[in-house]
Design goal:
The protein is an alpha/beta fold. It has helices spanning 34-37, 63-77, 90-102, 136-146, 151-155, 157-176, 202-206, 227-230, 234-247, and strands spanning 5-6, 16-21, 41-46, 83-88, 111-115, 189-194, 216-221, 258-261. Helix 3 (90-102) links the parallel strand 4 (83-88) and strand 5 (111-115). It starts with a strand and ends with a strand.
């Protein structure tokens, strides 16, 4: 285990790697069981500071700074195997910024999967005060509306005291994120949107197409914002892994968007 990456089931013989970025308030543990569902890949999860085994470290200063640190570590541990980056909600923004920093180098990702998130280019200014500035009860209400948080974390006072500081810090990271102009990615990009997700607008997801010159594929799955808790999108991820293994980052250049319901 490195500072930023955790691999619960090392598979040095796997042909490819999957790097997972959790949502706001999430941690690497969210993806701990994914190795069982993706037996052909070596699954890594990004370890955010200020929680779990990095509890005593300060929170990150911003998403751009986090992406820089993660990209440096991914480049340092690159072993030549194609890597797919998967990010959910806040994690999609972080995965995208990490992919931008790795682009053009030996550790450039073979595919980016953005789940339950609008396109970064729509974030041209920092957003106004939100749930991170609210009192604890209001923040808990926001988490309950989003789903994906165990009920006991929202009702137990001791657990709330442990969890809410890093949730608030993550919400502040998202609120303060501003997209910086730059060239589109050279790797294919897949977006995953849940049919009943009231927090992500379809038009905002469609705008991800501008972030790649190698093809954008949009997928819709059943469920709400945290659809992947009950039904991880292993089939969609498996397709991206297989494409990265067979063709590499640039193979899908010029392909048309694939609008399919999965």
């Amino acid at each position: 285990m490195t500072r930023w990456l955790h691999c619960p089931v090392p598979r040095p013989g796997a042909a490819h790697r999957l790097v997972c970025f959790a949502h706001a308030g999430g941690s690497a543990a969210y993806f701990h069981a994914w190795a069982a569902g993706l037996p052909g890949a070596e699954v890594h999860a990004v370890r955010y500071p200020g929680r779990a085994d990095r509890l005593h470290e300060p929170f990150a200063d911003g998403l751009h700074a986090m992406a820089r640190d993660v990209a440096e570590e991914l480049a340092a541990v690159d072993d030549g195997r194609p890597a797919v980056l998967f990010g959910h909600s806040m994690g999609a923004l972080l995965a995208y910024e990490t992919a931008r920093l790795l682009a053009g180098g030996p550790a450039a990702p073979a595919h980016l999967i953005a789940s339950a998130a609008g396109a970064p280019l729509l974030r041209r200014t920092a957003r106004p005060a939100g749930a991170d500035d609210a009192d604890d009860d209001a923040l808990v209400a926001t988490l309950a509306a989003l789903g994906g948080t165990a009920p006991e974390l929202l009702t137990d006072r001791a657990l709330r005291a442990y969890v809410l500081p890093y949730v608030r810090a993550d919400f502040a990271l998202v609120r303060g994120y501003v997209h910086r102009p730059g060239p589109p990615l050279d790797c294919p990009l897949t977006t995953i949107t849940a049919a009943d997700d009231r927090h992500v607008r379809p038009a905002d997801v469609a705008a991800w197409a501008a972030h790649t010159r190698a093809g954008h594929r949009a997928r819709t799955v059943p469920g709400g914002h945290f659809y992947l808790t009950a039904a991880p999108p292993f089939a969609i991820i498996g397709e991206a892994l297989a494409e990265g293994l067979a063709d590499g980052p640039a193979a899908a250049a010029g392909t048309a968007p694939d609008q399919r319901r999965n």
